[in-house]
Amino acid sequence: MRPTLVNNLRVLVPVKRTIDYAVKIRVASDGKGVDTNVKHAMNPFDEIAVEEAVRLREKHKDAITKITAVSAGPAKTADVLRTALAMGADDAIHVEIPDNSLGGPLEPLGVSKILKAVIDKENEKEEIGLIIMGKQAIDDDASQTGQMLAAILDWPQATFASKMEFKGKLEKGEKVQVTREVDGGLAVVETSLPFVLTTDLRLNEPRYASLPNIMKAKKKPFQKLTLKDLGLEDAAKPRLETIKVQEPPKREGGAKVESVDELVSKLKEAGRI
Amino acid sequence: MLARPLTAGLRAGIPSIASATLKQSSTRTFATSRSLLAQTLLVLEHKKGTIAAGSLVAATAASKIGGDVDALIVGNSDLDPAVEAATKISGLKKVHVAKDAKYDHLFAEPLAPLIKSVVEKGNYTHVFAGHSAIGRDVMARASALLDVSQISDIIAVESEDTFQRPIYAGNALLTVKSNDKVKVITVRGTAFEKAATDGGNGEKAEVAAVDGSAPTSFIEEKINQSSRPDLATAPRVVSGGRALKSGENFVTYIEPLADALKAAVGASRAAVDAGYADNALQVGQTGKIIAPELYVAVGISGAIQHLAGMKDSKTIVAINKDADAPIFQIADLGLVADLYDAVPELTEKVK
């Protein structure tokens, strides 16, 4: 690993293509997943991660040498990487994994290993000193990948962040204060570069990609890799087996009441007040 | 391992705290010879000497595996009263205690390697914790160190290797089987009853701190102070949405109704984002997931992300001006009315 140049920071932003958050999910007829033939988009927490990286550069100008977006998944995953480029990322890396080639869905543990391998490879060109990623994907709702990646890199982690403030220059060993959303309120912690930050909703409001920027994004460097390139054909295989996917028990909507009096008496009847 | 099967067998045959308190169906058909070898480690979260409610829920889920359940508790300041409380949790056999300044605040970087070490030394087959902010932060890191896939936010234990969890904001339920040597699991805080905090007699065992760095330091905490019940565990919750229009209206309309009902106050994401209510009050996929006896949704339309946080409530009341609001499709009792008239009237009549 080359040492990072003084006050030069390369940021990696992992993003995931998920079913659009506004789509109403339907369980697939085979009971093994959900109907994925619907609108997809970038995972909302990852949009916040891209935005945070771009804002960091806007604030610290030349201190950020490069923002690299990375994603693993089937061919269509390239779409969300294009979105990241249009939002301000400089280059993209797509680890292409054909549908059904792993025998099951890619899991956070596999993703963290893929990201580690990508980082090792990229470090030969220019070292990555900060990773900003979403706190969870809205499809599997696992909330694991950032922590797992931090573990295998042996980096500190600052999860569920709603604010990030650098105390000094953006370079290795420099302190950063992160406000984290915890149960019951907020906690402010201090850690140092390099580290993994995972974004909570209130970190920022992501920008929309403008049309000129979408056009420009098409010309930005776009690297394609396979699991074979990374030597991870087996390491990315799932450890969990899907037994079934089912609809949650349907909640029976009850009656409407006409007045507050009726509401109060029904609640009393039910023993709720 | 050899000393275990006898007690484990006894425990598997006797209705333990699990079958006494479990809310899910009581079909424990999985107490087979394999589960006799199950050895579960429960990672406890505590604050100011009290064990977190989510850890007690995880204790119940852990007890459904069969086999012994031991706990791990770490910290520094306020650790001793928490250890005393831990030994009294019903059903625990042993409580591993690691006291060291680096474990204060339960940061993931020093705690994850300790969990790995305890799991490996004790040949644990399962590791459980609550799916809280701390549980999510720590367990995934420990899981990667153990090189196993974590199963997050489970709502049911089907067998010792098969678990059910919600995906897509609770719009689908996934049953998943783990083929890993160690099953690392976080438990949804509303999915099981809390284990009893008395009657236990866990044996204390000291664990040495594991070498390694503690790169994150604590600066300060901003915890919301409130005299109302805690949102996550309150039996009644009154939540306000965007229709409240301002933070003042939250204080004028929602809080008095909550006080009259002795309820906690919640909010939709729209209300939080608009600044009407604090972040910590948000109910939904990205906030708290709750299941109170009574949930009163005031001026909340019922977006799927919000429903993901409250649809397991026993009774849902919706007060909304818009008769077509999706919240009415799941509400047990719906009142189509202007909240500015209906809420003060309801507050009066509840008093």
From TrEMBL, chain A:
Keyword Isomerase tagged: no
Transmembrane segments: none
Domain of life: Eukaryota
Cofactor binding summary note: Binds 1 AMP per subunit.
Localization terms from the record: Mitochondrion matrix
InterPro entries per record: ETF_a/b_N, ETF_b, ETF_beta_N, Rossmann-like_a/b/a_fold
GO terms for biological process, alphabetical: amino acid catabolic process; fatty acid beta-oxidation using acyl-CoA dehydrogenase
UniProt subunit comment: Heterodimer of an alpha and a beta subunit.
Function comment: The electron transfer flavoprotein serves as a specific electron acceptor for several dehydrogenases, including five acyl-CoA dehydrogenases, glutaryl-CoA and sarcosine dehydrogenase. It transfers the electrons to the main mitochondrial respiratory chain via ETF-ubiquinone oxidoreductase (ETF dehydrogenase).
Protein name: Probable electron transfer flavoprotein subunit beta
UniProtKB/TrEMBL annotation, chain B:
Signal peptide (residue range): none
Pfam families given in the database record: ETF (PF01012), ETF_alpha (PF00766)
SMART domains recorded: ETF (SM00893)
Record-annotated Electron transfer flavoprotein alpha/beta-subunit N-terminal domain positions: 40-222
Keywords carried by this UniProt record: Electron transport, FAD, Flavoprotein, Mitochondrion, Transit peptide, Transport
Binding-site residues, FAD: 242, 268-269, 282-286, 299-306, 320
Compartments where found: Mitochondrion matrix
Gene Ontology cellular-component annotations: mitochondrial matrix
Family designation: Belongs to the ETF alpha-subunit/FixB family.
Protein name: Probable electron transfer flavoprotein subunit alpha
Organism encoding this protein: Meira miltonrushii
